[in-house]
Design a protein that fits this description.
Elements: H1 2-17, H2 20-43, H3 45-59, H4 65-79, H5 81-92, H6 97-108, H7 131-143, H8 150-171, H9 178-194, H10 204-218, H11 223-236, H12 246-257, H13 260-265, H14 273-293, H15 339-350, H16 380-391
Helix pairs in contact: 3-4, 4-5, 4-9, 5-8, 6-7, 7-16, 8-9, 8-10, 12-14
């Protein structure tokens, strides 16, 4: 102990006798290196912890869909939620608000219906949080109203599995590990089976090969693709002003981010190499800053489409929800209650943030009612019956409505 004190006294004495400029530089260097070390330690903490928890079980082939969901949420909820959300949006290039709500709900909420992921199924115990099962059952109900081939379902499912790893490798501060990639596969393969999708490949590599072969045959130029692309880009960039060519430039940036095969299939114009270089440079700068200089986020829902925390009951004893972000037509946004909030709403419309004031379904949404307006009050009991099958246990109030559709 005496030797340690002597060493500290010596260091302090040397520092106090140093030139002020050298002392300042030394303190600054020590502070900077300490901060960078702290960033390095904390930024990889969740990644290291989840691998320490599940890597052995993954290598043994014993992961369950519930455990796979816990693994994929490290990247989707914490490490780069905005990037992975946009990865799927760009991959599908036709992701709209209602679809986002249902998909984000069964990704973010516990797939087994309980916040304790180790809880064994109990047919007699009502689900603690059945939102994932309700969202999946509602999506199945909506899909049943349209003619969609099994291969189209399977290809779309493959995008949710494969695109996050592609975008993470290109644009994120870290790539997805092999365990994380297979967690995406395991989780979404389970979702696919609950959707009734057949012929899902047995492994991640087999799915990747199938998806690439499907694209080679079916991803071809078509006017319908161009029409969908136009509507999608317009929605994506609605709030970008037209002045000074900002919206036109933003549209070109979106096209520059698309894979070449997708761009050609959408009949969109090729972009200059200089613009592509500019976009890639911005994305690279972003991940470098995040990796080396930014502490990890503490709030997991900042960039997620839905709030996955347990909601409060409304005055009728029902659970009504709101998204965390709104599209050009702000469905499910609460109507202004006072003069000031009304003025801010009108200002947002005037500035082009929203196309109109809140109105459609401003009381919020229930998952069993989400979808095209003609189906809003249809299939509610069917949705709950199927959700209970997925969950393996009853779904009771407040998740079943106390009022409204039956």
């Amino acid at each position: 102990m005496d030797s340690v004190r002597s060493l500290l006294d010596l260091v302090i004495d040397k520092l106090t006798r140093s030139d002020p400029a050298i002392l300042g530089a030394s303190v600054g260097f020590l502070a900077a290196t300490s901060y960078l070390g702290l960033v390095r330690s904390l930024r990889w903490r969740r990644y290291n912890n989840i691998h320490k928890k599940y890597e052995k079980k993954w290598r043994e082939g014993g992961l369950t869909p519930v455990e796979a969901q816990e693994i994929l949420l490290v990247s989707s909820f914490w490490d780069f939620p905005l990037l992975l959300h946009k990865a799927v949006s760009f991959a599908l290039f036709k992701t709209y608000a209602i679809t986002e709500i249902l998909i984000a709900t069964f990704v973010g909420c516990p797939i087994n219906g309980f916040h304790d992921t180790t809880a064994p199924p109990d047919p007699a115990k009502p689900a603690e949080d059945p939102r994932a099962a309700i969202a999946l059952a509602r999506m199945n109900f909506i899909h049943s109203k349209y003619r969609i081939s099994n291969n189209d379902y399977l290809y779309t499912l493959s995008l949710f599995i494969l695109e996050p790893a592609k975008w993470a490798a290109l644009y994120s501060w870290r790539s997805l590990s092999r365990m994380e990639q297979e967690a995406f596969f395991l989780f979404y393969a389970d979702v696919g089976r609950k959707m009734g999708i057949t012929d899902i490949p047995e492994t991640l590599d087999d799915l990747r090969a199938w998806s690439e072969a499907y694209e080679e045959v079916y991803m071809v130029p078509d006017e319908t693709n161009n029409l969908v692309a136009g509507y999608t880009v317009s929605e994506l960039l609605y709030a970008v002003p037209k002045k000074f060519g900002m919206k036109s430039f933003a549209e070109r940036v979106v096209i520059a981010l698309l894979e070449e095969r997708v761009r050609i299939a959408m009949l969109l114009p090729a972009q200059p190499l200089l613009l592509k270089w500019f976009v890639q440079s911005i994305m690279a700068t972003n991940w470098i800053v995040q990796r080396w200089f930014c502490l990890p986020r503490r709030d997991s829902n900042v960039r997620f489409v839905v709030d996955t925390t347990r909601p409060k009951l409304d005055s009728n004893g029902d659970v009504r929800l709101r998204p965390t972000e709104y599209k050009s037509v702000p469905w499910y946004m609460e109507e202004p209650k006072g003069g000031l909030s009304y003025a801010f709403g009108k200002l947002a419309v005037g500035l082009g943030v929203y196309a109109e004031m809140p109105g459609p379904q401003s009381q919020g949404y229930r998952l069993e009612e989400v979808g095209p307006q003609q189906f809003e009050n249809a299939g509610v009991e069917e949705v709950f019956a199927n959700a209970e099958k997925f969950q393996g246990c009853p779904i009771v109030a407040p998740w079943r409505p106390a009022t409204g559709s039956k």
